[in-house]
Amino acid sequence: MMATRYRVVSDEGRAKVEVDDWELFDWLDDILSQAGYEYELLTERDVGGSTVFTMSFAESVSPRELREVLASVPEEEVERVWQLNNS
User: Fold this and answer.
1) pTM of this prediction?
2) Burial 45-61 (b: 16+ CB within 10 A, else e)
3) How many Cβ atoms from other residues are within 10 Å of residue 37's Cβ?
4) What would the pLDDT profile of 17-74 be if each residue is shown by its tens digit?
């Protein structure tokens, strides 16, 4: 089951992970980095008063690969980290 606090998408031929919170972004980045996935570009955009952080990966990285890594993260942990800045 995919967490609602982040999304793995494919855009312009690149796998991307969109995250709704800085602390959660940093934590998921650590998890992906430990699995050998480093993003090439980080962008930020305002969506309804909240910042969305988007990690863009190399063209050789598929969304499926990122989903597999992130699927191992319990939803409860994702929510706990998100709550650190949003409760």
Assistant:
1) 0.90
2) eeeeeeebbbbbbeeeb
3) 19
4) 999 899 999 999 999 999 999 999 999 999 888 899 999 999 999 999 999 999 999 9
Q: Report the 10 Å Cβ neighbour count for 27.
A: 19
Query: Residue 10, SS3?
Result: strand
Could you tell me the CA-to-CA distances from 22 to 59, 62, 72, 74 in Å, in that order?
Answer: 24, 23, 20, 19
Q: Which of 47, 63, 53, 55 is nearest to 13 (CA)?
A: 63
Length of the chain: 87
